[in-house]
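User: I'm writing a tutorial on reading structure tokens. Could you give me a worked example: one chain, its sequence, then its tokens, then a sentence or two explaining what the tokens reveal?
Assistant: Sure. Here is the example chain.
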Amino acid sequence: MSVEAWTWTIVILSFALYLGIGYWARVRETAGFYVAGRGVPPVANGAATAADWMSGASYISMAGLISFLGFDGAVYLMGWTGGYVLLALLPAPYLRKFGRYTVPEFIGDRYYSNLARVVAVIAAIFVSFVYAVPQVRGVGIVLSRYLGVDVATGVWAAVLVTAFIAVLGGMKGITWTQVVQYVVLITAYLIMGIALANLLTGNPIPQLAFTFSDFAVRLSELQVELGFKEYVAPFQNLSALNVFLITLTLMVGTAGLPHVIIRFYTVPKASDARWSAGWALVFIGLLYTTAPAVAVFSKYNLLNTLANKPVEEVRQIDWVQKWEQTGLLKLQDKNGDGILQMSANPDVNEVTIDRDIIVLSTPEVAKLSPFIVGLVAAGGLAAALSTAAGLLIVIASAISHDLYTRLINPGASEATKLLIARVVIFLVVVLAAPFGINPPAFIAQLVAFAFGLAASTFFPAILLGIFDRRMNMQGAVAGMIVGLVFTASYIIGTKYLGWPNFILGITAEGIGAIGMLLNFVVAYLVSRATPPPPEEIQHLVDEIRIPKGSAGSALEH
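And here are its predicted structure tokens:
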């Protein structure tokens, strides 16, 4: 069978499975829709969390970024995996014990303020929408290449499948779909990594093949020969300050992401929340320890296939022809010598490679079997769809539960609440599709921006809400507003309005850490200059931290 035939077969079967689970898990009550009835076992929740969090950025784009950034690309590995350790140790079990449905609900109730709730809802929608765009973009890339449709058609197919699962099953349907999607994506990624490692080094274990071979050094030498920077040398693409701040931003952003935190409300008890985080870290580690090897092997293969080769010979390669058709790979013989030049100098370079195609193109570049090519494509779809579904639930619950039910119509029936949530999901996917078709940045860059916004708004409010009984409504609201406005303004200004990186050369990907610090400082100063929270709120904070019980009956709905 051809690559396209295998891809169609695997994708159709996996989509049918996802849709079947979504229909099987359809719900008729809000507890099932928002938190899966709080009956998800820790292992399953760990797998679902891993799929929810390992988005198109982790699967499709991260190894590509590492292959281009080299040593400096380790910020994504350190930040995202370190963030899960932080999440397991700090917020997860305490938030589950608080027993609410959403992050805005925790903030609204903890800070006894509808204003705090509204600010949190706005931040949740903003963060989740920014994060959702690259997911639908990732699906569009996969479908456009392997199923022969244009990116726009692929994006619309993705949002419709995701909306179906989310609208019918809510968090329950999404959870069990994500468990299956994790199996698909990790199987595909590991098979690709194993095949690459065995092909290039004779060692089938990617982590060991990468560690005990000289491929990284060989890639570094090849890059220097072609005029690129050394692969293994530190701080070639990012300053030491940016490496530190991007890592910190991704860490605290992980611990503040609404669509990840909401997963810990789905388990039966508080201790299960910590176990879920532990299992998620194990499941995530399988991919993240494989990614550096995939990055090195992929980049080495790609350079050897394209650099200094005759243009016409390269254009006869099947995968080159098909990626050129998508516009994500461009060959241009600028000097007319018939040989492809690859160089760090854009005036000399004749090969333009979108970072988001590195992983997806790797099986074909390495001449692996068509089955593996199709499986890798299906894994990319699973990664993007699983995260997109989780983000839809966050936006739907923020609007239907935290705004409509809590502020506008507290007496709404179960049917009305579910109708509002489902309508919101439909509207959000319709709005996200155009941005996915014409994205403002690479997939992993957009995701890094979402982490920065989460770091600068939610993380301080959650952490102070759990561990500082003196933190009040005024401090939390002021901190969140300052963090969100500062970080969003810096990202938009430096990336899209032509501003320089005027704060110590810090890039948009790392500015979330500064926004977080501003949030902490403003929240602390304002809270100490204003009256303390009510006595019952201070007692509630103390009760959250008591390490006994499953959730504390006084805190549950």
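What the tokens reveal: The CA atoms of residues 269 and 550 lie 4 Å apart. Strands lie at 329-331, 351-353.
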